[in-house]
Fold these 2 entries.
Entry 1:
Amino acid sequence: MERIPILRMGEYLLVTIQVDMHDRLAMTLQDDLTSRIAATGARGVLIDVSGLDMVDSFIGRMIANIAGMSRILDAETVVVGIQPAVAITLVELGMTLTGVRTALDVERGMALLRTTLLPREGEDGDGRVGE
Amino acid sequence: MERIPILRMGEYLLVTIQVDMHDRLAMTLQDDLTSRIAATGARGVLIDVSGLDMVDSFIGRMIANIAGMSRILDAETVVVGIQPAVAITLVELGMTLTGVRTALDVERGMALLRTTLLPREGEDGDGRVGE
């Protein structure tokens, strides 16, 4: 398996990272995700890392990169499901994920996106999930 | 990584299968999922297999098992994201996933659950995702 699935939920995209990332997989994910944001006009990206027991600086950097790219494409990134041990490791690695929002789980992450995103012009601001 | 994350989205649970299943991982998933259904009172389980390029009879059986267990716990299972090649393989293996609902993607799977699930007594039938 050489591709991380990206699930569309209304105007948000959900990425669940379960496997160890390596260079090529991370590049594929960045390509896929930016294409999907552009194609769907997604407003938010949820990255679920609850399946990761540990992170290294590579994953930390990848998440920061994805957040930066998404922001340029007008989509907010929320990282959800960070395990306590992972939070400790990230800070110890000096990666405080500045500019990346976090939430405890997907539900809270979606709620965060719903409350923080302003409606685009001509939209009612409600995700299709929220219909 | 020895655990597949189970994400709660309102009254549904979402499981994304990305990695090759083996016996122990499948058992852990069944344990985790049935516990979560019981703990959360989830009405539906979405199993996303869009990350799988191929399936074998083991995965097919596991999905059928999960659907059976969920049904006993009063939750409907919808398998989403089956790739065309996987559909071919499943039928060739003689596994037509009888009794398991399918949908093209997570959004359609959620819509299917919303339209088919009758509200439980004392509930308004709306998932929290749908608020």
Entry 2:
Amino acid sequence: MNTWGRHIRLSIFGESHGKAIGVIIDGLPAGESIDEERIAVEMSRRAPGGTEFSTARNESDLAEILSGTLNGKTTGAPLCAMIRNNDARSGDYGKAIRPGHADWTALLKYSGHADMRGGGHFSGRLTAPLVFAGALAKQIIGGRGVKVFGRVLSVGNLKDTETPATADEWEKISMARFPASEGVRDAMQALILEAKGEGDSVGGIVEAAALGVPGGCGEPFFGALESVAAAMMFSIPGVKGLEFGGGFALTHMRGSEANDELYVEDGIIRSRTNNNGGILGGISNGAPIILRVAIKPTASIAKVQRTVDPEHMTNVELEIKGRHDPCIAPRATPVVEAGLALSILECMS
Amino acid sequence: MNTWGRHIRLSIFGESHGKAIGVIIDGLPAGESIDEERIAVEMSRRAPGGTEFSTARNESDLAEILSGTLNGKTTGAPLCAMIRNNDARSGDYGKAIRPGHADWTALLKYSGHADMRGGGHFSGRLTAPLVFAGALAKQIIGGRGVKVFGRVLSVGNLKDTETPATADEWEKISMARFPASEGVRDAMQALILEAKGEGDSVGGIVEAAALGVPGGCGEPFFGALESVAAAMMFSIPGVKGLEFGGGFALTHMRGSEANDELYVEDGIIRSRTNNNGGILGGISNGAPIILRVAIKPTASIAKVQRTVDPEHMTNVELEIKGRHDPCIAPRATPVVEAGLALSILECMS
Amino acid sequence: MNTWGRHIRLSIFGESHGKAIGVIIDGLPAGESIDEERIAVEMSRRAPGGTEFSTARNESDLAEILSGTLNGKTTGAPLCAMIRNNDARSGDYGKAIRPGHADWTALLKYSGHADMRGGGHFSGRLTAPLVFAGALAKQIIGGRGVKVFGRVLSVGNLKDTETPATADEWEKISMARFPASEGVRDAMQALILEAKGEGDSVGGIVEAAALGVPGGCGEPFFGALESVAAAMMFSIPGVKGLEFGGGFALTHMRGSEANDELYVEDGIIRSRTNNNGGILGGISNGAPIILRVAIKPTASIAKVQRTVDPEHMTNVELEIKGRHDPCIAPRATPVVEAGLALSILECMS
Amino acid sequence: MNTWGRHIRLSIFGESHGKAIGVIIDGLPAGESIDEERIAVEMSRRAPGGTEFSTARNESDLAEILSGTLNGKTTGAPLCAMIRNNDARSGDYGKAIRPGHADWTALLKYSGHADMRGGGHFSGRLTAPLVFAGALAKQIIGGRGVKVFGRVLSVGNLKDTETPATADEWEKISMARFPASEGVRDAMQALILEAKGEGDSVGGIVEAAALGVPGGCGEPFFGALESVAAAMMFSIPGVKGLEFGGGFALTHMRGSEANDELYVEDGIIRSRTNNNGGILGGISNGAPIILRVAIKPTASIAKVQRTVDPEHMTNVELEIKGRHDPCIAPRATPVVEAGLALSILECMS
């Protein structure tokens, strides 16, 4: 269903071309200061911006807080934020099933009753409320010493081989207009424009890190920090893979290499490496939480595709017009960060 | 926490060297025939068997059903199954933190109160109840035309390049003593023995497939079939990555390649490819559900490792004795299948 | 937390004098026709109306549906409805703790951060979204043959001794401006006015009935239809008691009297009496579901009360000004009906 | 379903004449000392004891803890306790529907697949695991200064008019073999024996109190302490009513009487009366939590009853043989206490 979390409970609503989208966040502690300026910054990181790398749709993406705050602080009551939809051009969308989209499965599940204009409830636009909620989470866990960052690790075959070494480096990359290391940023953008020029799209990997997470967060089994974060990450449209720490690369290692050896320093137990991405047995160990998310190429492309008109059950060809990001990874970066920040807040609550 | 599922609710309990482990499964439909023989087969696939590829620990792994069935059929009441622990040698385990294990994080979370003998509640032994529950799920969804299989896709750098083409091929591979394609089986086993010979371990990838899943299962957002399955998969000890369909490889594709084009055949909509692994927008589309799980090398190895004695907070060296699988992937295969079968039952309920 | 339901999930938000209040309802089937006119009727039954029996506050109580419907039908996506607050006079509320209100406990729980203007998140105004959700539920279960009604059974010591015999009788009473039997209506209103004249308030009992509920709804134990409804009913401000069927009066009966004897009629099993209120073992038996809710006297009264100023921790006297219903029972009637309708929809889903 | 609680999660299993019944309790803090002696005392308070007031069935009711403890302390992992069924005489139960029992509704819900021997999963025997869990809860909250007591307030028309004034008085009454005030105990027992002598049964009211609950426990709306406790109480077989504080009697009061006036004493806010039963707005205020539960007369009676044979769909007469308590209230007292203790632990977690 549309709810997530046991201590911090999110409820998402809205359709892309409906009246509004939004989120209720329950379980926030009372008395937390909310900096709306910083929320707006996070929202703008995800918002489509009119650059060549993102759709030209001019969403205002201004979240109105309807409840749960007073004088800039949380009240302890559920916080609802709403974002009006004000630039929906329904005419842009036709009746053929768009390959790679939820059009097909929505039809199977809702028998034609779903509002699929602009992707409806399945639209990437629904990640805006997630970013809003994540911005709150970042502020709250920020006050407890946790920082969350993200970056585009790869676009197509082009992969960043460097790793940010400090929180400052992470922050610089994370907050850039195109959130990737300077060394690869231009090349990534060129690759995206190339795909766009061909009426096509390209996939990518987003990496996120949480620094300063205290040990002991999460639970064994179904309450594992990885399980909590995974349920969140796989709800983000376009995500088809997720790994923590060494992830799939760990399968190529020997145990003697993969095991993070421990040592005592200043009375604290630390690990020499972090192949487990800060999580052992579902519980944080104090090392940075590292995860990577595989994002498929944007499903909406200009190129002609073969598909089906479900009303007449005929094979047809489809050219998708309208405005679409040729690569979702850059705008997905703050969404993945938001999901990680919420997961950590959940496990710290 | 230890519960999973909204329609089918699992509650897991037990510690490796405690009295018993087990599971309650609630929400099962009444009147489903339970074939205990087939449950035993599934249990034996996971059980340590005394071959060179698995631990020599002689667990009986006989599940006793305590409730929820009558005359071989489900009653609709919660079904509890219990497995006694009867071969625990606590002496095998010392006091130094075993690198790569939950020893460290259990200490952080439970302040020394956890029963960590044999890995305690974090032990791979806790997957036995999952396999039990999965065996039930397989029988129930089997009656609705769904078949679930699994295989070892890779061990270390050795990857199977072939893909089973039919349900029969899948079944043959899946039910083999070492569940991998004949073409790579021997080489995989040799690789595992090589690691074992060095007092080391090796990782691998398990792939699972569900054939015959009807379209329309799952929900958008947090109830996505991927989210439901992910929460389950990341609760399996040793899992550090998960992907659906093309997964991470999709990030290397163009949209025109990754999108599964559609066509009408015999009045049914089908896709020419299955890069989305049978799931779009969190909902099944009728194509096979395909997922892959990255399993890290067994953390328990014989080789000397540097670690910490937490009682004295000193750096120490550790040689882990006792019986451990040098590669978890083969025995994890039925566990991943179980998790997938349960996820599908949940989404079909 | 602010969520209720497993199949039909409600999430409530809002504070009395904040920007808006509202509800998300998830899990509604797709394709259900929504009659906004009938929703408005239900909302107006709860809304304060300017009569002598209810507060003069002019809330518009117009719910705006933000998502989840298209062309008057549910889409299957979460439905969010919002009601703006537009007539809040914060000046009406002072700083002394109002006896019988949540002012005291909100202070204990939220350390002064709660927005308690007008009762904040604890306000009876929060029942408006419940009535909205209940109106939807009534329409959906109405399509399956279930009708839900309510009435004021007692005000103070004045109790209605008659019982509606048919759905038509129930409907007539339920939909009256003052939802009580004609025989007691005037006397009840007089009693309420008498209390009001003394600057005081009076309690009452609301009875609700659901006719046509099919057998087999609900579950044993914590999923009992009674448990599901109880969690809902006790969330309604002012409710301090709940009983099903004979309820507390059953404790005065012998088993031979209380047991509902059965007989076969037209191939259907029926009971001669309905002391169990249509529920046995937590599951509906096909007889009318009957429940009764005890509503305490309105806490806000004009009479001088002794209380505490928490800021100065001094004993003070308080006269509550402003507009308050001298008896909540009439306006609570549609709220209790809504809660029952939602509970039945939950258990039929 | 069979799970309850968000922080403390109970999962109940078992059927009266199956192999075993039991409970998993998850979310218990690690390191809590468990006194098995005191658990046994609680279990024996509920257990049928061979006196004239309870059934002669000789259940051992010895709970075996299978997991979650080590050296007498909780480990933080899920605690599973199992009670074997060893005295089931299935022959005692026939095929006619027993009026007032779940036989009828189980048939409607499970289409004849339910194991209804001895009441199956609906049996009062399933309250034994609740008492076990409650005994743990009592010990844990006891360590935080909370004491929970219960008593039989009324049997039939015979009602205790006195109220225990201190914790010592409560304890004395609560722990008596027949948990009622000395002044009414003999009369209550006589009344029960009278009903028994007539082959009949009688109902009663159980009152429970929690002393020392800190303010601020519980949440507004669906997380109200009342809602949490209500979902628990209505899962207890035979419960048909529940009230907090003044409960239904509050409906006869004026607001000026019902409102609990406040005053400051020793720097603490207190109320002069406790009509709200220690809960305002769903949150505890520090005053004793008081609740009352209406328990219907035992459904199993020796007297001839008219009912239906569902196999042949004929009207039949039924004489229930076997051993049944003529009044459930005394044995239900520790069950209600357990439910209250668990509810408070849940809200304090």
